[in-house]
């Protein structure tokens, strides 16, 4: 199947600034607010070929996403795998784009037709419906950041800009995530490739059908708050949300895919990119099988930032959490 057409930037001017002259300094500001080094390592972090970054409107998640993007090492990248969840239709399995290019306000990113076809030839992938591809913000919200960081890395060599491999990861169970992780592991191991994993964290509030609360910070005694619930203070709701997210973050940072699955089963935390994270963790686990002590810092996510859209105090409030992480491969 030959890829064709340009996926337009459908969220420009609504989820982020569509004018490149406005967007560029905004992203520069977000990236500039991130320290130049973390834990005595200068940014970008050498070998940090995998990141988790949020995908909400830039006014909410842009500053958090900048931490992941400033860590991302694109110096050897020839292609970028972009893994996101499906928000616009129910998907079981995984799906590939039919577009040849993805537009950004700064210019177009070219889809890697050869790699997309190799994945399609496995028989394990569906095609994204065109409408849903265009409307999927979990993919689009990363494109301006990617273009910005690519342009910063390959300053005078536009012909060296990496190609893009967009993949929607659907509602798969743990064993299915492991299977897709094993399929993608050779691509993750390839030094020419980087992976961007798209996910927000806890979506809390009635509008998300998730109001879990840990009274006394006891996550073994979770309850659901209602509009009749008084304002809880031990802990405040936003601290309970933070605790739930920290449990998910700790499970991801463990490098054990099963731990993450178990955490979500226990807390039901509404991590919207849980399946892209799960598939990537499964792929990293495959690569970590022959890990030596010298590789202790490889193949596991390290979280560098956590933020929330608001600090919830009463049950009628809502918030979305954002986190940024990187992994060295």
Secondary structure blueprint with pairings:
Elements lengths: L5 E2 L12 H13 L4 E2 L2 E2 L5 E6 L4 H14 L7 E7 L8 E3 L4 E4 L2 E4 L2 H9 L3 E3 L2 H6 L1 H4 L2 H11 L9 E7 L4 H16 L3 E6 L4 E2 L7 E2 L9 E2 L12 H17 L3 H11 L6 H15 L13 E7 L10 E10 L1
Parallel strand pairs: 1-7, 4-11, 5-10, 5-11, 6-9
Antiparallel strand pairs: 2-3, 4-16, 6-10, 7-8, 12-16, 13-14, 15-16
Could you characterize what this model shows?
There is one protein chain. By secondary structure, the protein is of the alpha/beta class. It has one domain (6-201, 273-328): Protocatechuate 4,5-dioxygenase, Chain B. The chain has 10 helices and 16 strands. It has helices at 20-32, 58-71, 113-121, 130-135, 137-140, 143-153, 174-189, 237-253, 257-267, 274-288, and strands spanning 6-7, 37-38, 41-42, 48-53, 79-85, 94-96, 101-104, 107-110, 125-127, 163-169, 193-198, 203-204, 212-213, 223-224, 302-308, 319-328. Strands 4, 5, 6, 9, 10, 11, 12, 15 and 16 form a 9-stranded mixed β-sheet that branches. Helix 7 crosses helix 10 (274-288) and helix 8 runs antiparallel to helix 9 (257-267). The longest helix has 17 residues, at 237-253. The radius of gyration is 19 Å and the shape is globular. It starts with 5 loop residues before the first strand and ends with a strand.
């Amino acid at each position: 199947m030959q890829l064709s057409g340009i996926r337009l930037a459908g969220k420009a001017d609504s989820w982020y600034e569509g004018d490149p002259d406005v967007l560029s300094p905004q992203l520069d500001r977000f990236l500039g607010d991130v320290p130049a080094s973390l834990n005595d390592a200068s940014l970008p972090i050498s070998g940090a070929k995998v990141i988790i970054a949020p995908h909400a409107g830039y006014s909410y998640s842009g500053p958090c996403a900048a931490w992941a993007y400033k860590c991302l090492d694109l110096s050897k990248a020839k292609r970028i795998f972009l893994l996101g969840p499906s928000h616009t239709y129910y998907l079981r399995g995984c799906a590939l784009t039919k577009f040849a290019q993805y537009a950004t306000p700064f210019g177009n990113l070219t889809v890697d037709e050869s790699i997309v076809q190799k994945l399609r030839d496995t028989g394990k992938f569906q095609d994204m419906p065109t409408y849903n591809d265009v409307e999927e913000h979990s993919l689009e919200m990363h494109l301006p950041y990617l273009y910005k960081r690519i342009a910063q890395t390959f300053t005078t060599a536009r012909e060296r800009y990496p190609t893009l491999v967009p993949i929607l990861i659907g509602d798969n169970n743990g064993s299915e995530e492991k299977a897709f992780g094993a399929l993608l592991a050779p691509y993750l191991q390839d030094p020419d490739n980087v992976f961007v994993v798209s996910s927000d964290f806890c979506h809390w509030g009635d509008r998300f059908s998730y109001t879990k609360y840990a009274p006394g910070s006891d996550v073994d005694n979770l309850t659901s708050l209602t509009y009749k619930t008084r304002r809880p203070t031990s802990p405040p709701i936003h601290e309970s949300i933070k605790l739930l997210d920290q449990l998910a973050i700790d499970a991801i940072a463990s490098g054990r895919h099963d731990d993450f699955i178990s955490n979500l089963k226990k807390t039901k935390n509404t991590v919207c990119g849980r399946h892209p994270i799960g598939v990537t963790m499964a792929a990293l686990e495959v690569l970590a099988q022959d890990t030596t002590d010298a590789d202790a810092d490889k193949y596991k996510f390290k979280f560098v930032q956590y933020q929330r859209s608001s600090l919830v105090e009463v049950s009628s409030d809502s918030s979305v959490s954002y986190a940024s992480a990187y992994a060295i491969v």
